[in-house]
Structure formats: C-alpha cells, structure tokens
Amino acid sequence: MRLRISEKRKDIRYFVDMYEILRKIPGVTDVVINPVTGSVLLYFPEELGAPVLRSLQRIGLLNASSEAQRRPGVLCRMEQFFAKEQGNATQVRMVLTVIIVALAIHQVRRGILLAPGLTILWYLVDFAVSHMKAARL
C-alpha cells in the first residue's frame, strides 16, 4: 500500500519517525519511506489488510476506507470513464483492446520492439487476463 503525505514532503525527521511507528504495526512486513516524494510504502499480507488499516486509522494516517485510498491504473480509469458515458463496460473493454492491439502492431511495424511495443503488449495481456477473471465471476 502506498500512502502519500504531500504536506510533509522533504521533512526527513517526520518520515523517520513515521518509519519507526509503522514498522511496529502488527502484520507490517516492510516499510519504505521516501521523504523527497512524500510517500510511504507498506508491505503486509493481504489477509492482514483490515487490522493494518485499522491501525493506520488509529494513528491518523488513513481517513477513508481502503477502497477510497486506492487509485486505479490508467486503463482502469479510462474504462470507468467510458463506462459512465456508454453504460457498457464490456464494449469499452473490447474497444480498448482493439486500440491496444493496433498500437502494438504500429510499434512492431516501426521496429520498436523492446520498449513501447512490449509495454503495449504487456498491457494487452494484463487486460485479457483481467477480462477472463471478470467473466468467471
């Protein structure tokens, strides 16, 4: 879980103190601080998520539910935007899949295989896997 504490950005003392507090939370396996960006990464097993979130709320680092704190990826946000507009997420998924395939083919034809072309194909595979998982539910 990533926590952003923008108002304390570059406050090294604050983040060192926060590190000490967070690593004592039961279930937290690792804490990585970055005072420059104002972020904290917390690592913990998924099954311990609820107790860790309660601990974060108790110390004042989490004001809303964990769902409100999660920021979906770019593709998920695009899908949500288009789904609101069109009302059919399956059609949006298909359109985005076609666009991603077209972009991948374009990059491959240009001879760009390692960076953008491969990245686009990675998004396509991720998209397809999430679509298959959603279809099973």
Report on the structure:
The protein is built from 6 helices and 3 strands, in the order E-H-E-E-H-H-H-H-H. A 3-stranded antiparallel β-sheet has the order 1-3-2, with helices on one face. The chain is 58% helix and 9% strand. The chain is mainly alpha-helical and 137 residues long. The protein has 2 domains: 2-69, 2-Layer Sandwich (Alpha-Beta Plaits); 74-136, no CATH class.
List keywords for this structure.
Alpha-Beta Plaits, three-stranded antiparallel β-sheet, mainly alpha, 9% strand, 137 residues, 2 domains
Task: Specify the overall morphology.
Answer: elongated
Gap between N and C termini, in Å?
25 Å
How big a fraction of the residues is strand?
A: 5-15%
Rg, rounded, reads 20 Å
The class by helix and strand makeup works out as mainly alpha
Instruction: Tell me the CATH topology of the largest domain.
Output: Alpha-Beta Plaits
Number of domains: 2
How helix-rich are the residues, as a percent range? 55-70%
- Residue windows where pLDDT falls under 50 for at least 5 positions: 64-69
Can you summarize the main beta sheet? 3 strands, antiparallel
Identify the CATH architecture of the largest domain: 2-Layer Sandwich
**CATH first level of the largest domain:** Alpha Beta
Write the SSE topology.
Layout: E1 2-4, H1 12-22, E2 30-34, E3 39-43, H2 49-58, H3 66-69, H4 74-86, H5 89-109, H6 116-136
Antiparallel strand pairs: 1-3, 2-3
Short description:
The protein has 6 helices and 3 strands, in the order E-H-E-E-H-H-H-H-H. By secondary structure, the chain is mainly alpha-helical. Helix 4 packs across helix 5 (89-109) and helix 5 (89-109) packs antiparallel against helix 6 (116-136).
